[in-house]
From TrEMBL, chain A:
Organism: Jiangella anatolica
Record's GO cellular component terms: plasma membrane
Superkingdom classification of source: Bacteria
Alphabetical keyword list: Cell membrane, Membrane, Transmembrane, Transmembrane helix, Transport
GO molecular function: transmembrane transporter activity
Pfam families in the record: FecCD (PF01032)
Entry protein name: Iron ABC transporter permease
Keyword Acyltransferase in annotation: no
Membrane disposition: Multi-pass membrane protein
Main subcellular location: membrane
Matching PANTHER family: FERRIC ENTEROBACTIN TRANSPORT SYSTEM PERMEASE PROTEIN (PTHR30472), FERRIC ENTEROBACTIN TRANSPORT SYSTEM PERMEASE PROTEIN FEPG (PTHR30472:SF24)
C-alpha cells in the first residue's frame, strides 16, 4: 500500500532497515555536497602558492609527494577540514535548536549560548590555565549553563518565542562583558591568544585541536541521527509526541545537550563564529522546501557557508580577517532580510 | 497590542489623587526623589575625582580647586585627568539618558536604547570610516560623522522594525541588534585594514572615558546642550504622543513635527555621546525606567530625572571600572553592560513587555 505524503519521495530498503527520503531534500543535499566539494577544492588551491584544482586533487589523494603535496596536506588541509566540520556542526546545532523552540531566531549565537561557551572557555584559560581538553569542557559547561539559564529566565507560564530571544540577548551581553573583564585581568600572553580566539578564527586550528573536536562532533552527529525522529515528532507538540511514544522530556534534554555540545566544541576550537547557526537552517529549509528543517541539509549549508566565508576572509581581502568578521556581516544582513520579509508577510 | 499601557505603569496609579494638590504628599515625594538623585550625582562626582589607581585625599582635592597654581602631582592628576574625565562622564551620561528617554517615549517602546537599537553602532561605523578613509582627527569631524551615522541607522532600523508604519518594540530591538552586528563587523574589518587607526579606535570601541581631555569634550558640548534643550522642549508633546497618534493630533500636537524633532534630538545626543566615548549600551535603557518608577509617567519629569540619574550611573560604572582591575581599567561600556543586561531580562520577563 502506498501513502500519499504530498511530496515526491523515494524509499530505500536494505536488510532490516528502511528509510523514506524526501526527494527534493535528497537532490538538495547532493547538490550541496557537490558545491561544498568545489568550495573546499578552491579553498585548498588558494594561497601564496596558487595551485590548479587538478593539482589539489592529485595532492589530496597522495599522488604528489612534492612540495605541492606538503602545502595542501600539511598546511591547508587542517584549516579547510576545520571550516567544513565546524560549519557542519554549527548548521546542525542551529537546526536542532530552531526546531526545538519552533523559532527561526533561536540559534545558539543569538540566544547567548556561544557567548556562554566563550566565557566558560575563558574561565578555564585565564583562571585555571587548562589545555585544549579542559578548555573544551569549560566551553561545554558554559554553553549548557547558559542554555539552561536562558530557558529558566524566559520561562513564565511557558516559553514565548521573542521573550526567549531578548533574554538570550541580555544574558549574552552580560557574558560578553564578563569575557572582556576576564581578558583584561589576564596576563598579557594569555590575553593575546584569547583575543585572537575571541574574534572567531580558524587560523589557530591545527590537527591537535581538530581531532578531538572531530570526535565530539562525530559522536553528537551519530546521536542526532537516532534522535532526529523524536525531534521531528516533537514539532507536533508535546501531547501528540507523547501519544506517538516519544519520551518528551528525555528526548528534549538529549537534543539540547547535543546541540549545545556541537556549538561548544566549535567555540572551544575556533572561538565564537557568529550567525552560521542562525542562517544555515533557514537557508536549508528554503532549499529543501519541506515543512521542517532537514538536519543534513542544514549541516551542509553551514559547512558551505563557513568554507566560503573563510576563503573570502583569507583571500578576497587585502588583509586576512578572522572568519567571524565575515560571517557576522553575512549573517546580520540575512537577519535583517528575515525581519523585512516577515514584516511584509504580516502586513 | 501596542505599548500604550507601558506609559502608565502600576505605581503611578496610587499617586494619582495626590497630583491634584500641589505641595501634597506626591509632590513632596517627587521633590525628595529629585533631591536624592542630585545628591547621589554629587557623591559619585566626588568619588570619580577622589578614587582611582591613586586615591587622593579629599583635603588635597580641595587644595587643587582653591589653589590651581600649586604644581603638585596630585593637583595635576585632579585638574588634568580626573576633572575632565568626570565632566566627560556627566556629559555622556546626560546625553545617553535623554536619548533613551526620548526613544522610549517616542516609540512607546520599553526596550528603547540607543545602544540596543544600533544607533551607537551606526555612529561608531561612520566615525571609523571617517578616521580610516577620510583621516579625520578633530572632535567636531568625529561628531559630524557620528551624527550622520546615527541618523542613517535610526532611519534604517525604524524602517526594518516597523510593520505598516507601526514600530513593534521587539521587532525594533531585533532589527537594531542585526544592524548593529553588521556594522560592528564592518567597524572591526575597517580597523583591521588600517593598523594605524587600530590603536586610536581600539579603546574607544568598548566605550571608555580614558584620555578624554577638554579638547575632546568641549567642542561637542554646545551641540549636546542644544539637543538636550530640544528634548526637554518636546516633553509635553511626547506626553501627548504617548496617548497614541490620534489622541495626540486631537490634542493639537503636530505628530509628524514632534517625531522629526525627536529623531534630531536622539541622533545628536546618541551620536555626540558615541563620538566622545564610543558606544555605551544599556544606560539609555535602564535610566528612564528607574525615573518613571520613581516619579511617575509625566515625560517632563522623566526627562529631568534621567538627566540626573544617567550621569550618576555612568560615573559610578566608570569608578567601578577603575577599581575592579586596578591599576588597570575596565571600560565603562563593559560595566554598564554587566549592570544593564539584567534590567533588559527583567523587562522582557514582565508580562506586559512580552505581550507587546
Amino acid at each position: 500500500m502506498s501513502v500519499d505524503f504530498g511530496a515526491a519521495h523515494v524509499v530505500v530498503r536494505r536488510g532490516g532497515l528502511s528509510a523514506r527520503l524526501h526527494l527534493r531534500t535528497l537532490v538538495a543535499c547532493l547538490a550541496l555536497t557537490a558545491a561544498l566539494a568545489a568550495a573546499a577544492i578552491v579553498a585548498l588551491s588558494l594561497g601564496d602558492l596558487p595551485l590548479s584544482p587538478a593539482e589539489v586533487v592529485t595532492a589530496l589523494f597522495g599522488a604528489d609527494d612534492g612540495f605541492a603535496g606538503t602545502v595542501v596536506r600539511e598546511w591547508r588541509l587542517p584549516r579547510t577540514t576545520a571550516a567544513v566540520l565546524f560549519g557542519l556542526a554549527l548548521g546542525v546545532s542551529g537546526a536542532v535548536l530552531q526546531t526545538l523552540t519552533a523559532n527561526p531566531l533561536a540559534s545558539p549565537d543569538v540566544v547567548g549560548i556561544s557567548s556562554g561557551s566563550y566565557a566558560g572557555g575563558l574561565v578555564v584559560i585565564v583562571l585555571l590555565g587548562g589545555g585544549f581538553t579542559a578548555t573544551a569542557m569549560g566551553s561545554l559547561i558554559g554553553g549548557l549553563a547558559t542554555a539552561i539559564a536562558v530557558y529558566l529566565l524566559a520561562y513564565r507560564r511557558g516559553v514565548q518565542g521573542f521573550r526567549l530571544i531578548i533574554v538570550g540577548i541580555g544574558l549574552g551581553a552580560m557574558l560578553s562583558a564578563l569575557s572582556t573583564y576576564l581578558l583584561l585581568r589576564a596576563r598579557v600572553e594569555v590575553a593575546m591568544t584569547a583575543t585572537a580566539w575571541g574574534a572567531g578564527s580558524l587560523t589557530p586550528v591545527g590537527w591537535p585541536q581538530l581531532l578531538p573536536a572531530a570526535a565530539v562532533i562525530a559522536a553528537a552527529l551519530i546521536l542526532l541521527v537516532v534522535l532526529s525522529r523524536p525531534l521531528h515528532q516533537l514539532e507536533l507538540g508535546d501531547d501528540a509526541s507523547h501519544a506517538l511514544g516519544v519520551a518528551v522530556e528525555r528526548s528534549r534534554l538529549a537534543l539540547l545537550v547535543c546541540a549545545v555540545a556541537l556549538t561548544a566544541v566549535v567555540t572551544a576550537a575556533a572561538g565564537p563564529i557568529a550567525f552560521v547557526s542562525l542562517a544555515a537552517p533557514q537557508i536549508a529549509r528554503r532549499l529543501t522546501g519541506g515543512a521542517g528543517i532537514s538536519l543534513a541539509a542544514a549541516g551542509l549549508v553551514g559547512a558551505l557557508l563557513l568554507t566560503v566565508s573563510d576563503t573570502v576572509a583569507q583571500h578576497a581581502l587585502p588583509v586576512p580577517f578572522p572568519v567571524g568578521v565575515v560571517t557576522v556581516v553575512i549573517g546580520g544582513c540575512y537577519l535583517v532580510w528575515l525581519l523585512v520579509r516577515e514584516a511584509r508577510r504580516t502586513a | 497590542m501596542t505599548a500604550v499601557a507601558d506609559a502608565s505603569p502600576a505605581p503611578a496609579a496610587g499617586r494619582r489623587p495626590g497630583r491634584q494638590r500641589p505641595g501634597g504628599p506626591a509632590a513632596r515625594r517627587r521633590a525628595i526623589g529629585i533631591a536624592l538623585a542630585a545628591g547621589a550625582l554629587l557623591c559619585v562626582c566626588l568619588a570619580s575625582i577622589v578614587l582611582g589607581s591613586k586615591p587622593i585625599p579629599l583635603a588635597e582635592v580641595v587644595d587643587a580647586f582653591t589653589d590651581p597654581g600649586a604644581g603638585g602631582e596630585n593637583v595635576r592628576i585632579v585638574l588634568d585627568l580626573r576633572l575632565p574625565r568626570t565632566v566627560t562622564g556627566i556629559v555622556v551620561g546626560v546625553a545617553l539618558g535623554l536619548a533613551g528617554a526620548v526613544i522610549q517615549a517616542l516609540t512607546r517602546n520599553p526596550l528603547g536604547d540607543p545602544g540596543l537599537l544600533g544607533v551607537d553602532a551606526g555612529a561608531a561605523v561612520f566615525v571609523t570610516v571617517g578616521v580610516v578613509v577620510f583621516g579625520t582627527v578633530t572632535p567636531l569631524q568625529d561628531l559630524a560623522f557620528a551624527v550622520a551615522g546615527a541618523l542613517v541607522v535610526t532611519a534604517a532600523v525604524a524602517g526594518i522594525g516597523s510593520v505598516r508604519g507601526v514600530a513593534d518594540p521587539i521587532r525594533l530591538t531585533l532589527a537594531g541588534i542585526a544592524v548593529a552586528a553588521v556594522l560592528t563587523g564592518i567597524t572591526t574589518a575597517l580597523m583591521l585594514l588600517n593598523p594605524d587607526s587600530f590603536h586610536r579606535l581600539q579603546g574607544w570601541k568598548a566605550g571608555t572615558f580614558v584620555e578624554r581631555g577638554w579638547d575632546v569634550v568641549l567642542p561637542v558640548v554646545p551641540f549636546l546642550a542644544a539637543s538636550a534643550l530640544l528634548a526637554l522642549a518636546l516633553a509635553r508633546a511626547l506626553n501627548s504622543v504617548g496617548l497614541g497618534e490620534d489622541a495626540a493630533t486631537a490634542l493639537g500636537v503636530n505628530v509628524a513635527r514632534t517625531r522629526l524633532l525627536s529623531v534630531v534630538a536622539i541622533t545628536v545626543l546618541a551620536g555626540g555621546a558615541t563620538a566622545i566615548a564610543g558606544p555605551i549600551a544599556f544606560v539609555g535603557l535602564m535610566v528612564p525606567h528607574v525615573a518613571r518608577w520613581l516619579i511617575g509617567p509625566d515625560q517632563r519629569r522623566i526627562l529631568l530625572l534621567s538627566m540626573l540619574l544617567a550621569p550618576t550611573l555612568v560615573l559610578a560604572s566608570d569608578v567601578v571600572g577603575r577599581l575592579v582591575l586596578a591599576p588597570g581599567e575596565l571600560p565603562v561600556g563593559i560595566v554598564t553592560a554587566f549592570v544593564g543586561a539584567p534590567v533588559l531580562i527583567a523587562l522582557a520577563r514582565r508580562a506586559r513587555a512580552s505581550a507587546l
